[in-house]
Input
Amino acid sequence: MTESEFTGEEAVETATLPLDAWHRAKGGRMVEFAGYWMPIQYEGIMAEHLWTRENAGLFDVSHMGQLYLSGEGLDEALEAVLPGDVKSLTVGRMRYSLLLNEEGGILDDLMLSRWPEGIYMVVNGAVKWEDIGHLREALPDAITINHLEERALLALQGPKAFDALKRHTTGQWPLDALVFMMGGPYQIGGVDAWISRSGYTGEDGFEISVDADKVQQVADLLCGEPEVKPIGLGARDSLRLEAGLPLYGHDLDEEIDPIEGDLAFAISKRRREEGGFPGAARILGHLADGSPRKRVGLLIDGKLPVREGAKLFDGEEEIGVVTSGGFAPSVGAPIAMGYVPRDHAAPGTAIAAEVRGKRVSCTVAPMPFVPHRYIRKQGG
Output
């Protein structure tokens, strides 16, 4: 599993995470991903996946880009490049959004959080330099973009994540005051951190932004709890696939707009009514009339995994492609997601995937494959 975030003719050396030695000391098998050496597994992807579903897993996602944006007119400026409702975002609240090109294609998917004096943004590691360049070009000079290169990012995910984290956390508000898509300043074992109740596994959990020189202290503290084990990139991928969550560069790219990507929820009612974001004509047209293709889930017959790049067929007609796929430990069977025409996107539609020259039967299925277990606001 390799992917480079760097472009150009000159080769760039693979970077290391602040916890690189820590991962290796714990038996992490390191691979190149998004321009960094990252642990793909420790004791095995299946075991790590199931541990996270039942207990709590600690993921190092410090390859992600952490940005802080500030300046006069910030909300209006961001709404000119994102389809999300930035103006209604109050302090401590988070929102999923998308960076779009002029045609409405997805340059990246990202998370926004309102901090007291600006916006904290987390973007994908594989394209963070491109994102920064795009934002610098697209936003007015009055907007300052700080790349928080000296910060690390951890994700503590699973049904026992709260119990493990609470033992070491103090803050202005109790930890259980955070519900899904909220964040705030806390201390973990005396280390200052921004903690949000969020993640990319479908489980309850938290993301923890800390200074890079303090991240090992936090990782050791959390992994000292009986519920917590370090978990690698492999299980992170199988967990997010079961949760029906797209991975940029695989399930989303510049040719796909939010409606095709099944991300219409990221465009609020006000933005739909007002427009004013890149590619609005295409996107609002697809909202009104339906998009020509759609990202869907696929349940695979049999035990043979269907991987990214497999072609999809209706009879002898090629109709689409798989963008993510593999064995789903919590489902106990292979699953996938991919793109099919709108008239093949209804759950229950029978199609086939081509694997090593053979046809494998599959069925369009609703996502997520495993129910999300986010802790939401009561009544929300």
